[in-house]
Predict the 3D structure of the following.
Amino acid sequence: MRRSERGSSSIPALAVLVILGVVAYIGIFGDKSEEPPPVDLTLLSASSTQSTIATAPLDTEPYATTSGAVVHPPVETALYTAPDGEPFGKIAPQQFGPTWLPVVDQTDGWVRVLLPSKPNRSTGWLREDGLQRAASSYLIRVHTASRTIELFEKGRRLGVWKAGVGARKTPTPAGRTFLLGSIVDHKRSASPIVLPLGAHSPTLDTFGGGPGTVAIHGWPRADVFGAAISAGCVRVPKTALAKLQRVPLGTLVLIDNK
Amino acid sequence: MRRQLVPTVVTGAAVLGVVAFSLVAGAPVGNAAARPSSAYAVSGEGQLPINKTPYVESADGKRVSSSALELPSNPLLDVRAGTVTAGNNSASVELIDLSIGAGALGQIPIPPDLKKQCDTLPPTGAGDLPIPDLALPDLGLPLPPLSLKDLPVKNLPDLCKLLLTPPTSLVALDAVNVWCSAGKGGVDIGSLTLLGQKLSIPTTSQSFSTPANPLISLAVNQQTKNADGSFTITALTVNLGNGAQILKFASATCAKPVVHKPTPKPTTPKPTPPVHQPPAAPQPTPVKTHLPVTG
C-alpha cells in the first residue's frame, strides 16, 4: 500500500515534464515547420484613393528620393505590414489606369511601396514574385513655400514653374507621394486634364463628393500660379501640365515646405 | 531505497523544469529597448510647464497617432494643429502655425528719451551709438527682468526699428515636419522667423542655432543618440530668459523595434544588376473619367 502511494506521486511530475517537452518542441520547431497561411483576399480592404486603411505602416523616410523603381501588380495582390508580416490590405491592378506604385524599400523577395489610400504616407510590402517591374527616370518636386513645381529627368531639371498650392487652412500635404493616374475629366470644362496623386487633403475629409484626393491640374487663370490658394491641389500652367502628362505613373512626387 | 528515489528524482526534475521554463518565459521578448518609440508636438519646462502634448508612444511596435493637442491657457504660445505618430522604430510629428509671444513686442511702451533718440538718429554713425541700459518693460511673458540691452539687436538703429515697428511675434513658424527612422531623421521646416527676421535653415539634416541671447535663442534640428540606443530628433527648441522657460516643438524618438519574429533587414533600393534592368516605365494613357479632386 505504501509502495503504491509512492509510485502514484510521480505521475503528476511526469505529466509536467511531458507538457514542458511538448511546449518546448512547439516553441523551437513549431514556427519553422509551418507553411505561411494562404491569404484570403476577399477579407482584405482594397487600397485606393477612395479607401482608408489605418493599419498600413507609414512611410519612414517621407522626404527621401528613390531609385525610380516602380511596380505593377497584374492581379489583385496582398499588402503586408512587413516582409513575412501580417496581411492588412490588397491592391488592385487598376486604379484610374493601370496601378503603378513607387518602390521605397526592398529586401529579398519583397518590395515596399507607397499606397493611394488614406492616411497620407501609407505604405505596404508586396511579395515581389509576379509583379511587373519598371523604372521611372522622372522626379517631380513641389515646394509649398516658394509655390513652385520642378520636373526632373535622370537628375536633370526639365523645368520649374510657379504653381498654385494649398491655402493655409487647406494645405498641400508635405511628404512623398506619387502620380496615381492620368485622367481627362470633362466635368471640369476649364481644366479637364487631372493627374491625381496618392495623397489626400490633411484637413478636408471629403471634397466635392470625392475623398479629398490631391491632384496636379491646370487652371484657366494665370493669377493663381505662385499663390497659396487651392484646397490642396497643385495648379500648374499649361506648359508644365503638357510635360507632366508624359511622366510615367508611379513616379515619385516630393512635396516639401521649402 | 531505489524505488523511493525514483519519484523524488522525477519530482525534482519537474520542479527544476518549471523554474527554468518560468525564467525563460518571463525574460523580455526580442531586443525591446528601454524606451519605446515616441513623439510629441509641444512641451515646456520652467515658469510655464507644459506636459508633452499630444504625446504617443509605441511599446509594441504598432503605429499610434494623435492630433489631440491641448495647451494650457497661456499668454506665451499658440499652435494651430499638431499630429504625432510613433511606430516600430519610427516616429514623426507635423506641426502647423506656431507663434510665441504674439503681440508681446507691440505692447512695449518706448521710454520718451529713447523715442526722441530714435526719431533723431543721425544719417551716419548711428550704428556706433550705445543701446541704453534701460529695463525692458514686462512683456506679459514668464521671463525674468531684462534690459533693452538683452534684446537680440546689433545696434541702436536696429533697436529703434524693433520697437517702432514691432513684429507680430517673437517666433513664428508656419509648418514643420520632423521624422526619424532607425537612428536617422530630418526636419523639414517652413518659414521660421525670429523677431520678424526670417531664418535661413540650411538643410533637413543639419543642426542650426541662433547666437546665445538673454531674451531668446533657438536651436533647430537637435539630434541625440541616447545611451539605450534610441535616437531623438527635436525640430525646434526655444530658450527664453536664459533657461527660465524652455519650449520644445516637434520631437520624435525612434527606439529599436520590438521583435516578435525575425524579419529580414530592409535594405535601401539598389539598382538592379544590368541583366535584370527593368524596362522604362510607360508613358500614361489618359483615361476619361470623373474624380472630384481638391481643386
Remarks:
- Chain B touches chain A through 67 residues (CB under 8 Å).
